Amino acid sequence: MEDEYNVAEGEPVGVVAAHSIGEPGTQMVLRSFHSAGIASVITTTGLPRIIEIVDGRKKPKFPMMIVRLESGYSKNYEKVKEVWKKIEEVKISAVLERFEENLKTGVMLLYPNKEKMERYGITPGVISKRLAKMEGIDASLDGDAIKVKVKEEDTKSIRTRFVKIRASIVAGVKGIMKVVVQQEDSGEFYLTTSGSNIEGIMEIDGVDKESIYSNDIFEVMRVYGIEAARILIATELKNTIEEEGITVSFRHLNLVADAMTHTGVIKSVGRHGIAGEKNSVFARAAYEETVKHFTNASIFGEEDMLTGVAENILIGKQIGVGTGKVRLAVKKQDLKKIMK
Question: How far apart are CA 27 and CA 24, in angstroms?
């Protein structure tokens, strides 16, 4: 008995893969919602996530990460909380009780909220030192407040600078808006984040740097390389489809990932990527923007050798896959016998 994973010569794997993914895709829900088990962290699911992946979007709508911890941290909740405090992005505005602005003198007083400061393990002195390192800013402690003076002269510039100061990050990893601590059945804790920053997470003590998972495909490519991005595309497609209760063979998903990444960069499936870069004029025109492709082909005198599948279907010619891949030759003497 043949291995079920063997593919026969001439098998139209691209068409089979497209059908195997496209048909169940019509049953997927066209909406985004909170994924079960990832409390308070919103992720794109269902058909919107599939579209996001195959379109090769530079940034996912809801980037997220799963951060595993080293053995000395993963079962100690107190240590897990310490890691969480180092990861979650904290802006100055998030730890303020109130603030006062004086646009004439260019002075702003920041009044921290003690409870919020304690939650993230931050002190007014930490904020003051962080602000003092910024160009064009003088910062110092003034009683219960942090006094900030900017060197801009006109009112508009002062106001803009005040807003940027309050929006500046004072702790945590840039881009990680929220962190949720979760526990597995084995008792080990791990972190789920809203936002993705692989390089920033790697610098945190206690993080298992070999087990960081991000759903941001382009960031994974930039940090780990194109092969890691290829695996992530296939894995994300598989997980997204299975969340809808649909089963698709991983071979089909792997073929899509291969097609998107085999050139060393991530290309979308649509007209701005794989479909739009086909050599055949008919194949490009059959996908989208038909008139544009035919017009350009006429202007530049393009030729279509009709070697692919789509263009041969379009003109009613036998395609070169399956039985169409076989060419039969008959000897003259045998042909005479057949004719008789």
Answer: 5
